[in-house]
Structures are given as C-alpha cells and as structure tokens.
Amino acid sequence: MSKRWIGNLLLLLGAMIWGAAFVAQSVGMDYLEPFTFQAARCFLGSVVLLPVIAVVDKKGNALRPATAPARRRQLGYGCLVGLILFAACSLQQCGLLYTVPGKSGFLTSLYIILVPILGLAFGRRVKPWIWISVLLALVGLYLLCGSTDFSLGAGEWLTLGCAVAFSFHILLIDKISGRVDGVRLSAMQFFVCGCLSLLCAFLWETPQWENILSCWVPIGYAGIFSCGVGYTFQIIGQRYTEPTVASLLMSLESVFSVLFGWLILRSTLTPTELVGCLLVFGGVVISQLPGKAPAPSPQQSQEACPRC
Which structural domain, as residue segments, surrounds residue 233? Predict the structure, then answer.
C-alpha cells in the first residue's frame, strides 16, 4: 500500500473517530460545562500519548528532536498548533450559544473550501477536479447539517472564525508534519489547549471534581480516542496527503456523526440527510481519482529541498 493511501486511511479513521465523538460530547454536556469538558479531554489526550512517545523513541524515532534547536522548534510548533486548536474549538463552542447546531456544523465545514483558497495564497496549487469534489461535498454538508438560511449574526460570525482557524490548523500541520515528531506535536497541542481551556473554565465556569468523575466515559472516549488517536492520525496522515484532500476526508466527520447518532442515540436519518451523506462521500471519492498533480510553485520546490 502506498504512503498516499496510508495517509488517506488514517484521515478516514480519524474522521470516523471524531464522528462518534459528537455522541460523547453530547452526553458529556449533560454533566459538564463546555470549557471544563474541553480541558479534561485535552489533558487526557495529552497524557495517553506519553507512553506512545516513550515506545516510539525506544524503537528509534527519526523525527525525535535530538538537538536544542530542534527541541525549540518542536516546542514552538506545538504551542502554535495548540493555540490555533484552542481558538477553533472555543469559537465553535461560543458560536453555539447564539446559533443552532445545524448551521454551526455547516459553517464549521466551510474549511473544506477555505483550505484550497488559502493554499493558493501560499503558492499551493490544486488539481482541477478537486474543486468539483469540494463543491459537491459543500452541497452535501449543507443538506446534512439542515441549514436553511444564510443570515449572519454573532453566532454565525464566531463559527466562521472557527472555520478559518481550522483551515490554518490544517495548512500549518501540512507544512510542519514532515519536520517534527507527529506524536509529540499532538501531545503538546492538547496540553496547550487543555491549559487555556482550564483557565477559561475557572474564569467563567464552576468546575466540580465529582461532575468530572461522573462523566468519565464521555471524557474517556473524547480524550483517548478523539484527541489522542484521531488528531494524531490527522498529523501523521497529512504527511502523505495534500491539505485540500485531507480536509475533504476529514469532512466525513459530519457523515459519521449522523450515522453514529442514528445507531447509538436512535436519532432519525431523514432522506435529505441521506442525500447529503452520499454527496459528501461522492466528493471524497472524486478527490481520489488518479491524475497528474499540478506543477509545484518555486516556493514549494524550495521547501521540498532537503538542504533548505
């Protein structure tokens, strides 16, 4: 199996894990306030990766930061990625205070079109049929999320900010994934996001230890699988997949969230949602069509040079 398909498979598995995490988050909100839940899951996601780091280092890790400059670079990227992740998750959560979940899901998914547009600004070209995939998936997500109007209020603008933040998160990981240890980067981003979430929890919420213990199953899934496994799959998978295709694969998170909600929470699956699922899946399939990739820009060629 080629590295490209390995990367695609990891991103697909990550999307499946995140889709099921919507169920865990929905149940978790019955026990905890948003920043408290986010802090707990992020700290758990960071901790469970520590043994993985130890095992990988023991077996030989080519990307392990061995010099002081490499460690500083790893630390700097980890803090930056964690800050962007915190911004994206927090903007989405705050936006939900003022808008409905369906519209929030659709606006968040706009990263699938923002990623290629922002990529063009950074000199990254996109294969022509990928734009067809993006538009097809966008229509599918619109149907899937049940959005019916385009009015923009405070909640919508906050959620659009979330989509922009997730776009930069995807593009930044694409740029640095081959330069740093992916598992360390994943652990560090959760630690940073957890610290910032905990600060917000103490400022605006009332964390209760007994409530956290009562919510151990949703926190366990969201922390161990959604954070520890899912986001690590994203970082590793993006090493072998271009960012626009990666964003399309990750958009399947919405499809899996509907399917798991139907299977676990007994939610209804309407014909419109089913058509939306098929369109998103169709967009992802089209994105995998073989073809000649566009010639890299001079900037991309310089970045690919091992001496640079």
Answer: 3-289
Classify residue 299: in a domain, yes or no: no
Say yes or no to pLDDT of 120 above 80: yes
236 contacts: CB under 8 Å, gap ≥ 6: 7, 10, 177, 182
Total residues belonging to the chain: 308
User: Model confidence over 124-158: pLDDT tens digits?
Assistant: 777 788 888 889 888 888 887 765 566 678 888 99
Rounded to two decimals, what is the model's pTM?
A: 0.82
Is 245 within 8 Å of 12 (Cβ atoms)? no
How far is Cα 29 from Cα 222, in angstroms, rounded to an integer?
A: 12
What distance, in Å, lies between the first and last C-alpha atoms of the chain? 30
Give CA separation, 152 vs 31, 88, 98, 167, in Å: 31, 18, 11, 20
Q: How many CB atoms lie within 10 A of CB 268?
A: 8
Please count the structural domains in the chain.
1
Using alpha carbons, select from 297, 308, 298, 258 the residue that is nearest to residue 278. 258
Other C-beta atoms lying within 10 Å of the C-beta of residue 290: 5
Residue with tokens 């240890």: 181
Provide the token pair at 202.
Answer: 């103490």
Tell me what the pLDDT averaged over the chain comes to: 84
pLDDT at residue 296 above 70?
Answer: no
